[in-house]
Amino acid sequence: TISSSLVLLGGWEIPRLLLGLGQLLNALLPLTVYAGGWLLTRQRRAGLIAAFLVALPLFFPAYYATWGRYTQLTAMLLMPVLLGLTWRLLRGARGWRSSWGLVALLAIGLFLVHFRVFVFYAPFAGLVWLLTRGRNGRFLWQAAGFSLLSLAPHLVYLFQNSNPGAQLAARLPDYTAFPTSYYTAGWDRYFLWLAGGLLLPTLIIWFWKRRLWTAVPLFLALWSGLVLLGLSGNYFGFPALPLVNLNSYYITTFLPLALVLGSVGAAFWSWLRRQAEPLVIAGILLLVPLGTAVTLFGVQQQIGIINPQTILAQPADAEALAWLDANVPEEATVAVNSWLWLLNTWSGSDGGAWLVPLTGRQSSTPPADYSYSAALVGFVRPFNEQLTEITDWRA
Prior knowledge:
Blueprint: H1 2-10, H2 14-41, H3 44-55, H4 64-67, H5 70-91, H6 100-113, H7 115-131, H8 137-160, H9 164-169, H10 180-184, H11 188-209, H12 215-230, H13 233-236, H14 246-250, H15 254-273, H16 277-303, H17 315-327, E1 333-334, E2 338-342, E3 345-348, H18 355-359, E4 362-363, H19 374-388
Parallel strand pairs: 1-4
Antiparallel strand pairs: 2-3
């Protein structure tokens, strides 16, 4: 919807618009993370620190652009504000009770944009309600009821025109495997270790002095940990959620990670400013070079964030596609290179993946959503399976 609207408004070419859209969404995400951080803590510094982490040093969400995961990226734009408003609705002052309508609207949007991200949000709302002992719970139920009523036509259509049971049962062999390669990429694991190390003193401060600021980081950690546990059933011997997996969850954990570090960082800065002047100066002298180093690393990482293996079309491919568009009959079907992607779905592996959207010609492997057409599946799958059996094309 966003890309179609921009095409109508600006008349851009769709391929270049989609490439630019990923950068635009990535640039907007720190703004909503700032808003979410402020709503959760009512501290601007917490929002600024979280937004900085998302914008530069963290590997995600920037890496979304290399996949083209624009739907999940769009959902993550909504998520921080929805988390913050849900927190305020249940734990905030009386004035926040009227925000239930906005919570409902954002929840509806999140469900429609990316259902998996909505699945990660739902435990957050339930946990806040439980830990606040039902305080202002009726406003959350109002939001839930309005959301369900608004989504009812969509849900009916979804169940009538798809087979959710079969899709829930369809699993790849390594569907529930932990994405180790993402964990080791960039500096994210160090930020995870830092957050884990900070949670222990935060927990001690909560037990000892019951500081209000400790509620946000501890609750975010509890929510993240419980979702992680719920998706790790295959490792612990209990059923795991079939619709989502550790891979799809891990690439969203940059949000609670940034918010935890932002809230603890803001509390630390407030504490530091109340100390004696020599300690304040020492803290600043330590934080300035550390912040500079993290910024420089983040800039360097963002410059080379795109995985070259996911760049399917090079300038030469664009020229070839333009020639094909001008010289090949419109009713032609062109054979292109492909690889087996998910389950029995074949995907283009080079510039040929762009043939259908850019030229309108049919190909032996159209964009992956061909899998929703039984007729196309009946052609694409046997054709590609037959080609894989050919070992010597010169024979």
